[in-house]
Specification:
Elements (H helix, E strand, L loop, with lengths): L13 H6 L3 H17 L9 E3 L20 E5 L2 E2 L4 E4 L6 E6 L8 E10 L10 E7 L16 E8 L14 E8 L16 E4 L9 E8 L2 E7 L7 E6 L2 E2 L5 E7 L6 E12 L5 H5 L8 E2 L2 E2 L5 E2 L4
Antiparallel strand pairs: 1-16, 2-5, 3-4, 4-16, 5-15, 6-11, 6-16, 7-8, 7-15, 8-9, 9-10, 11-12, 12-13, 14-17, 18-19
Amino acid sequence: MARERSPAFWLHPQTSVTLRMPVCHRILLLLWLLHFSSVYSDITDGNAEHLKREHSLIKPYQGVGTSPSSQWDFWGSTLVTSQYVRLTPDERSKQGSIWNTVPCYLKDWEMHVQFKIHGSGKKNLHGDGFAVWYTKERLHQGPVFGNQDHFVGLAIFVDTFRNDLQGMDRSFPYISAMVNNGSLPYDHGKDGRSTELGGCSVEVRNKDHDTYLAIRYSKGRLTIMVDVDDRNDWKECIDFGGVRLPTGYYFGASAATGDLSDNHDIISMKMYQLMVEHTPEEDNQDWTKIEPSVSLLKSPKGNTADIQY
């Protein structure tokens, strides 16, 4: 049975302190917290999260299809079953995607993606990977893990195949993030190195337990966390400030195979609203008019340079 993930789990350091309390004190604290949450559940405290079902993809995947009332569309090789959404089968030259039909107008949010990458290919003989998107346009076929190049918005890539044989300073699978205003191409030959905000190597293939990716955007900060070791423990992959993303874009996921292949399965995509206070100036701004941008881009060696669009 899949575990329930706690939104913003890594932002609550008081957990370790609580575990050192005597049992009786912990029970009293738990009872107090239950009472507090029931009475003050509507108070915005900066840590309260709420599942937004209109932006969530959850078993048994009701609301997925081509009807006018559908909240999710799919395309290409995507197969929707009662247990998973398979973006590509373990076959060559496949592309598939699934997209939320409802634009997201949340200023602060957190997306949890439960996924599974598996196939018959042995080490270094599998590919290509999948991506999670928050973009202006949706359902556009293309060369970037099954989606269009020169996209506008945010992409999180889970790349399982090394194309750049010179870049031996990282291992694959490799997770990276990219923000684009439409002017930047994704360089497959260099595995997106020139445009990534950051990344990490994570072994995610052929696991016999649940694997998760968390994407948080709040007050201009993008944080990517992973939980792939079946320890119910988030580990930081990317943490980057100075990111500007508009509201009104669409969430989606896509995958692609080439000469090598894998099954790329999405088990769930759960969207949580983060209750965060903003300044009056921020609240009065038209967030739909913001152009996706990043103030600084870190190189893999820790240097910084302005992004040139």
